[in-house]
Structures are given as C-alpha cells and as structure tokens.
Amino acid sequence: MLPRGRVFRCWMLAATMLAGCARVGPDFQPQHETWSGQWTSEAIGQASEAGDQPDMRQWWQVFNDPVLERLITEADANDAGVRIAGLRVMEA
Questions:
Q1: What pLDDT, on the 0 to 100 scale, is given for residue 52?
Q2: Residue boundaries of the structural domains of the chain
C-alpha cells in the first residue's frame, strides 16, 4: 500500500494537470504586443565604462544577510572542484 503523502501528491498532480487543460471563456481575447524592433534606453551610454559597473564578485553582500554570508563562505571553503577549475583556468 502507498503512503498517504504519496497518494495525496499524486492526486494534487493530477488535479493540477487537469486544471491546465481547462478551456478559457468564450470572451477571451489574446493580447498582442507590438514591438518597435529597436531598443532605446538612456542608460546604455551611461554604464559603458568598466568603472561604472558594480562589483558582482560578492553580489550576496547586497542583502546584508549573515546566514547567506556564512553559507557562501562555507561553500567556497569546502568546494574543491571550483578551486581546481579556477586553477586550471589560470594554468591555461
């Protein structure tokens, strides 16, 4: 016999899949987007130099979360594969 949690998940999956097959109402009108075909932005010329770019090597510090900081420090210290890959890139 299957555990109750597994049976519940199967029923929820089946219900979700059936809901995805539902038809929309008769008054449904799809939205059509118009594109100019050209990107326009004033910020394109402003951040063109490397000095204007934010330092993304430590992106997680923006959140000021000590738990996230600890997890990333721990992952960095314990992940030998990343260190080896970095050394191989430097060697090449």
A1: 60
A2: 60-92
